[in-house]
Design brief:
Layout: H1 18-27, E1 31-35, H2 39-48, E2 52-55, H3 59-62, H4 74-87, E3 92-96, H5 106-118, E4 124-126, H6 134-142, E5 147-152, H7 158-161, H8 171-187, E6 191-195, H9 199-208, E7 213-216, E8 224-227, H10 229-232, H11 250-266, H12 281-295
Parallel strand pairs: 1-2, 1-8, 2-3, 3-4, 4-5, 5-6, 6-7, 7-8
This protein binds 3-methyl-2-oxobutanoic acid (KIV).
3-methyl-2-oxobutanoic acid binds at residues 35, 54, 56-58, 96, 193, 195, 216, 226, 228.
């Protein structure tokens, strides 16, 4: 007798590594990256074939409901990193170092970066900043930990930047960004996020450095693209940045499903027979008889 599986065959993908990133840039193949913070999303992203998953500190805003990313802790990042690593086996997993986990000293930066690999199941880390982070990046890379840089709109510096605003729009600012990109490459970053900078500048930087650039709000000239998954799915209702393309409206879908459930319970449409555990009539009658004998007075 032949057994036919009822599950579709999902062919195992080769693990994406930092070398895959480099090869993709060399071949001119766009790199895909999205964020995840939990097991089911990581599983779906991995099965869809995304190259890389970022456990971003955007976690703080889109999942934990904080005003910005500043309150996010190492413990929160590691907790969500572990969930993601249990769901995704092929994508390159990047853990985002939260505010104050790498700014105080190089030693703390290396120790916390190491925790993402040792306790979080990540393959690499990301941190924000340019020239001021070179020493930390060099030391983390020397410890054998791949580092992704992040330039342009760096949300952990929201107060210094005067809000979530586009960067690199003047000659001086653009030159500084290009210099920082070169410095991060020299320091050993394997890749670089460019957030909210003019498209021409992002493309120019991408051509000037050998490591892949991953853009978010930085135009089509980058070597890859990243979005916050909750923005793409329409799950974060507080605001949607201009550069986001919404592929679904899951907040509305969720609300509709919840309202339908509430209405079904209130009108006793749920649970129906098919949602209920049944018992053979004969067993039930015997049970009732025994129960009634037990409670009847002697
Ligand atoms: O935290 C995050 O999700 C990020 C991306 C926006 C790049 O840093």
């Amino acid at each position: 007798m032949s057994t036919v599986s009822v599950f579709p065959v999902v062919s195992a993908r080769k693990k994406v590594t930092v070398l895959t990133f480099r090869e993709k840039k060399e071949r001119g193949e766009p790199i895909t990256m999205l964020t995840a913070y939990d097991y089911p999303t990581a599983l779906a992203l991995d099965q869809a074939g995304v190259d890389s998953i970022l456990v971003g500190d955007s976690l703080g805003m889109v999942v934990l409901g904080y005003e910005n990313t500043l309150p996010v802790t190492m413990e929160e990042m590691l907790h969500h990193s572990r969930a993601v690593s249990r769901g995704a086996k092929s994508a390159l997993l990047v853990g985002d170092m939260p505010f104050m986990s790498y700014q105080v000293s190089v030693e703390e930066a290396v120790r916390n970066a190491g925790r993402f690999l040792q306790n979080g199941g990540m393959d690499a880390i990301k941190l924000e900043g340019g020239r001021e982070r070179i020493e930390a990046i060099r030391s983390i890379v020397s410890a054998g930990i791949p580092v992704m840089g992040h330039l342009g709109l760096t949300p952990q510096s929201v107060h210094q930047l005067g809000g979530f605003r586009a960067q690199g729009k003047t000659v001086a600012a653009a030159r500084r960004l290009l210099e920082d990109a070169r410095l991060l490459e020299e320091a050993g970053c394997f890749s670089l996020v460019l957030e909210s900078i003019p498209a021409q500048l992002a493309e120019y930087i991408s051509l000037q450095i050998s490591i892949p650039t991953i853009g978010i709000g930085a135009g089509a000239g980058c070597d890859g693209q990243v979005l916050v998954t909750h923005d793409l799915l329409g799950l974060f209702e507080r605001f949607t940045p201009k550069f986001v393309k919404k592929y679904a409206d899951l907040h509305d879908e969720m609300q509709k499903a919840f309202s339908d459930y509430i209405a079904d319970v209130q009108t006793q449409q749920f649970p129906a027979a098919q949602h209920t555990v049944s018992m053979a009539e004969v067993e039930w009658r015997e049970f009732l008889q025994a129960a009634e004998q037990e409670i009847s007075p002697l």
